[in-house]
Amino acid sequence: MTKLVPWLIFLRIVLSGTQELVYKEALRKGLDPALAMCVVQHESKWDEKAVGSHGEIGLWQILPTTAMYVTHQLDMKGYDLFDVQDNTTLGLWILKNHPRWFSTWEHCQDEVGKLDQQTP
After folding, report:
1. What is the pLDDT of residues 53-112, one digit of tens each?
2. How far apart are CA 115 and CA 103, in angstroms?
3. If phi over 0 gives left and psi between -120 and 50 gives alpha, with beta otherwise, what is residue 118?
4. Which of 46, 52, 82, 91 is the most buried (most CB within 10 A)?
5. Residue 63 counted as domain residue
6. Which residue has the higher pLDDT, 101 or 116?
7. Residue 108: CA count within 13 A, CB half-sphere
8. CA–CA distance, 74 with 41 (Å, rounded to integer)
9. What is the Cα–Cα distance from 25 to 46, expressed in whole angstroms?
10. Residue 90 domain-assigned?
11. How far is CA 85 from CA 19, 21, 35, 51, 78, in A?
12. Quick check: is 49 in a domain?
């Protein structure tokens, strides 16, 4: 896992509220926050209102049909894919359970791996 935890004070200054949410939620769910943030960067460029050419929605660019499946798995009632918290909850579940559903996952694995090699 990337050694970013000591940077929390620094992150409060540098990261937007949305970025901080993704970072903290990834940590809370036992995921590498650098990987999560890379996926969001490549999927939506942090645009919570983004809509993809195939109907993907929000930060994590989740298809409505995928959202229905994931919310069923999480027993989550009521959600809004344009809501940052809801979209992040679903996106992190996908990243943990089906990472290859994100077309950018392998690229981000490589990117984060390069960061890890540079971190003392």
Report:
1. 999 999 999 999 999 999 999 999 999 999 999 999 999 999 999 999 999 999 998 888
2. 20
3. alpha
4. 91
5. yes
6. 101
7. 21
8. 25
9. 15
10. yes
11. 11, 8, 18, 17, 12
12. yes
